[in-house]
Write a structure and sequence with these properties.
There is one protein chain. By secondary structure, the chain is an alpha/beta fold. It has one domain: Rossmann fold (3-Layer(aba) Sandwich), CATH 3.40.50. 37% of the residues lie in helices and 29% in strands. The radius of gyration is 16 Å and the shape is globular.
Length: 184
Amino acid sequence: MNDSRGELLALLREKSFRYSPDKPFRLASGRESPYYVDCRPVSHSARGLALLGEILFEVVQDLEIRAAGGLTMGADPLAHALALVSYQKGRPIDAFSVRKFPKDYGAGGLIVGPVAPGDPVAVLEDVITTGASVRQAINAARDFGLVVRGVIILVDRQEGGRETVEELVRPVRAVFTLDDLKAG
């Protein structure tokens, strides 16, 4: 594991990962688990953003994408970090967001950002459990006319979500798994 990945993993273990075997957490999926992963303390920090941008840029190199994004708000900092670092490295990859609900004013729609139908993109997700949020983002992107070339997940909880998403698109890559976080 390179230094950036090791540092990001340490940050996620320290700021984003919790274990409570006696009082399980209720997840967005409705499931209960003794493990809770909230990437926002890391993905909203200056150091976390810098590391995320660098690592995500490496992960998407072979996908030949023009933009990356996903369901707001979990994917937003990942997309913005990737966009900034990609620009700094001379290979710009724009960011986009998928709204949870379309606006009924202004330009409306679910997709926000400098993308157009036909653009090749990657869908990003901070944490995957069942895959429902990623599926929602993939479907919205495709409905808009984007070509989804892959999915990048920061933390895979290893509860079947990744496999569900692989039925829609491949590759699906996880930077870390729940096992990685637990190993610390």
